[in-house]
């Protein structure tokens, strides 16, 4: 049985299912997101597209920005810290943000270790590209998993690849006997019990959301149909020509992902989506997912 | 043989899958509800936890507000957490939500604080003649700040009322669907339809 703290951590992720979490950099954007029906906002210093453009080291958002956003909205406020930077995470806990994203979109602080997330009272979400990464993050205490895409690219091909990868690997566990599951646990570097529970559930033991390059209502719907339980939209909204309208449309489409007629209605007159980047033309060091 | 009751669960956003799992343990048939016609097929309705501003938006956009009010006139409705906010008469600290006014209570959204202040504790409930203990999970929970004369208090935790009922309509500020016990769900199903 999971302990009480962990029930509360995963419980909040359950409450966010079916929703859209939007990257915002200030109170004004947070208000637009909340009014559009965002289920939570992610407080950032710059959206990933601008981090990509500016280069340099990307860090936790300034304290005042996070406080300004918390004072503006009633929905949960999440914030990112650098991978392995448990002190930034402690600061975010002091600020009482509702979720901490230990994120590859920021410049990693520790190339060897992720944060030990169990001692924190605030829940963590972490990115992953495959089942091994997802299970290691869950074992470290993550209460929500999201796919790693190519943040700030407007191109979600990597997010789709990773969703298919994870569910493909989970599906493959189904046919494995005890010995084979033990071998997989060794390969994934996690306890066999976690692999077994994942195999039985045929899903991750925590909610699994999609992220990375989602730019249109149809992008969000594809992620939902591939098994994501909610979506993060980063640069896609505030880099488009009509953020409020696109934000509403992505929320509508995500909720009604099983009804193409409503998704079509939501896809009308959206103006220009953010310009996308061709992933194969990006140098590997600019692909944040390898962090 | 008595037909299985059909429990509708409003499924725009939130932990509706957890509610489905809990009612499945009680051998109920559940239906996910996103439209007035889906609602009509049900005998009970649950408004789940989630973000009240998001669920409220979709209740309006799918024109479900009036059908839910008609449903509540002769069939049981239960709201948890965000669902409680939507059933209330007043929400003191929200600029977007227009609640359904099916329960004469005033609510403070996130009245217990942020996720840091979320907690699990054992409260007291009175479903029968005697009070009994029940484990309760509060996540960024709403607080009831005023209760009308027609409203019955059925449970408390940490000196706050956390279960209220007015006729067919019942609300909990905590999440029975996140615990192993189905005691609350059994009480809800005992309400007449």
List the helices and strands and how they pair.
The complex is a heterodimer of chains A (291) and B (193).
Chain A (H helix, E strand, L loop, with lengths): L3 H13 L3 E5 L2 H10 L3 E4 L4 H7 L8 H10 L4 E6 L3 H9 L4 E5 L20 E5 L2 H9 L4 E4 L9 H17 L4 H11 L3 H10 L6 E2 L7 H9 L5 E3 L1 H4 L4 H13 L4 H7 L25
Parallel strand pairs in A: 1-2, 1-8, 2-3, 3-4, 4-5, 5-6, 6-7
Helix pairs in contact in A: 2-4, 2-12, 7-9, 8-9, 10-12, 12-13
Chain B lengths: L5 E5 L5 H10 L3 E5 L2 H5 L3 E4 L4 H10 L3 H10 L2 E4 L1 H6 L2 E2 L13 E4 L10 E7 L6 E7 L4 E5 L4 E6 L2 E7 L2 E4 L10 H8 L3
Parallel strand pairs in B: 1-2, 1-3, 3-4, 4-12, 5-6
Antiparallel strand pairs in B: 6-9, 7-8, 7-10, 10-11, 11-12
Question: In brief, what are we looking at here?
Answer:
The complex is a heterodimer of chains A (291) and B (193). Chain A is of the alpha/beta class and 291 residues long. Chain A has helices at 4-16, 27-36, 48-54, 63-72, 86-94, 131-139, 157-173, 178-188, 192-201, 217-225, 235-238, 243-255, 260-266; strands spanning 20-24, 40-43, 77-82, 99-103, 124-128, 144-147, 208-209, 231-233.
Q: How would you characterize the overall build of this protein?
A:
The complex is a heterodimer of chains A (291) and B (193). Chain A has 291 residues and is α/β, with parallel strands linked by helices. Chain A contains 13 helices and eight strands. In chain A, strand 5 (124-128), helix 6 and strand 6 form a beta-alpha-beta unit. The longest helix of chain A is centred in the middle third of the chain and has 17 residues, at 157-173. Chain A starts with a helix and ends in a 25-residue tail after the last helix. A nine-stranded mixed beta sheet of chain B has the order 2-1-3-4-12-11-10-7-8. In chain B, strands 5-6-9 form a three-stranded mixed beta sheet, with no helix packed on it. Chain B is built from six helices and twelve strands. Chain B is globular, with a radius of gyration of 15 Å. In chain B, strand 10 and strand 11 (160-166) form a beta hairpin. The longest helix of chain B is centred in the first third of the chain and has 10 residues, at 16-25. Chain B has one domain (6-190): 3-Layer(aba) Sandwich (Rossmann fold), CATH 3.40.50.880. Chain A binds chain B through residues 4, 7-8, 11-12, 14-19, 34-35, 37-40, 74-76, 93, 96-99, 121-123, 251-252, 255-256, 259, and chain B through 11-18, 34, 49-51, 53-54, 57-58, 61, 81-82, 93-94, 96, 109-110, 113-120, 137, 139-140, 175, 178.
């Amino acid at each position: 049985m999971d302990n009480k703290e962990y029930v509360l951590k995963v419980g909040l992720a359950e409450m966010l299912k079916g929703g859209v979490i939007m990257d915002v950099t200030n109170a004004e954007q947070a208000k637009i997101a909340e009014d559009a029906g965002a289920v939570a906002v992610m407080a950032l210093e710059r959206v990933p597209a601008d981090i990509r453009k500016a280069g340099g080291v990307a860090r936790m958002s300034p304290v005042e920005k996070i406080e300004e956003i918390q004072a503006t909205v009633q929905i949960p406020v999440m914030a990112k810290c650098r991978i392995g930077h448990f002190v930034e995470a402690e600061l975010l806990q002091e600020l009482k943000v509702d979720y901490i994203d230990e994120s590859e979109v920021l410049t990693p602080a520790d190339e060897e270790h992720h944060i030990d997330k169990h001692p924190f009272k605030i829940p963590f979400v972490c990115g992953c590209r495959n089942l091994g990464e997802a299970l290691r993050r869950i074992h470290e205490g993550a209460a929500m998993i999201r796919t790693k895409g190519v943040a700030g690219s407007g191109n979600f091909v990597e997010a789709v690849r990773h969703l298919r990868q994870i569910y493909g690997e989970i599906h493959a566990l189904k046919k494995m006997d005890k010995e084979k599951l033990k071998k997989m646990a060794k390969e994934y570097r996690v306890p066999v019990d976690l692999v077994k529970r994942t195999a039985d559930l045929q899903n991750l033991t925590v909610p699994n959301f999609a992220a990375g390059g989602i730019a249109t209502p149809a992008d969000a719907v594809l992620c939902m149909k591939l098994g994501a339980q909610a979506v993060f939209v980063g640069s896609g909204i505030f880099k488009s020509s009509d953020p409020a309208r696109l934000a509403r449309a992505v929320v509508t489409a995500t909720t009604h992902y099983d009804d193409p007629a409503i998704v079509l209605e939501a896809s009308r007159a959206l103006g220009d989506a953010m310009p996308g980047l061709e992933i194969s033309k990006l140098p590997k060091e600019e692909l944040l997912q390898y962090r | 043989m008595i037909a299985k009751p059909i429990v509708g669960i409003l499924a725009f956003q939130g932990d509706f899958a957890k509610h489905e799992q809990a009612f499945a343990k009680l051998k109920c048939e559940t239906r996910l509800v996103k439209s007035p016609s889906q609602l009509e097929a049900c005998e009970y309705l649950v408004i789940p936890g989630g973000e009240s501003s998001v669920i409220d938006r979709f209740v309006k956009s799918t024109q479900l507000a009036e059908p839910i009010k008609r449903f509540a006139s002769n069939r049981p409705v239960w709201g948890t957490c965000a669902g409680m906010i939507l059933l209330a008469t007043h929400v003191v600290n929200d600029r977007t939500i227009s609640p359904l006014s099916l329960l004469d209570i005033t609510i403070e959204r996130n009245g217990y604080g942020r996720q840091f202040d979320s907690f699990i504790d054992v409260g007291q409930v009175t479903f029968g003649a005697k009070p009994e203990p029940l484990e309760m999970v509060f996540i960024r929970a709403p607080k009831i700040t005023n209760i009308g004369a027609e409203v019955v208090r059925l449970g408390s935790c940490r000196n706050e009322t956390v279960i209220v009922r007015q006729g067919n309509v019942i609300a909990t500020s905590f999440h029975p669907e996140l615990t192993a016990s189905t005691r609350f769900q059994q009480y809800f199903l005992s309400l007449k339809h």
